[in-house]
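Final report, Chapter 2: Outcomes

The project's central promise was a pipeline that accepts a single protein chain and returns its three-dimensional structure in a standardized token representation, suitable for archiving and comparison. That pipeline is now operational. To close this chapter, we reproduce one record exactly as it appears in the project archive, with the input sequence first and the structure output second.
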Amino acid sequence: MRIKFDRVSEAEIGVLIEAFYARVRQDPLIGPVFNDAIHDWPHHLEKLQAFWSSVMLGTGRYKGRPMPAHVQHGDRISRASFDRWLALWRATTADLFEDGPAAVFAEKAERIGESLLMGILFHKDRAALLRAEQAAAASPAWSPDTA
């Protein structure tokens, strides 16, 4: 049996990110989305480690903007995608960490995932609304004379 981490540091976050995204890349549901979107995995994993370092340790190392990157691929991301991502995250953190740190990672991931999903859905709804408005503006207005 492998000894689980009982604390969170940069080193443990690095192990987590490597293990988790190895699973993600192999997953039949979300793997293709990630593999198509990410062209430089080593660079992306560094960015993700900086992100989770900022989230868990308050380091402020992450300077990116995750929402636009996720919205860009919103047509391929669904609630089921986020549920699968979270299930893999929970399994990986449970495999690597004691219950306390694993629960904190899971709780943060749930909030982050929900926020990203809400942002994607907002942008999808907004785009649909704009298309409907454009279609209405292009159509002749109804009047009693044309009815």
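Archive annotation: The chain has a mean pLDDT of 88.
This record, like all others produced under the grant, will remain available to the consortium after the project formally closes.
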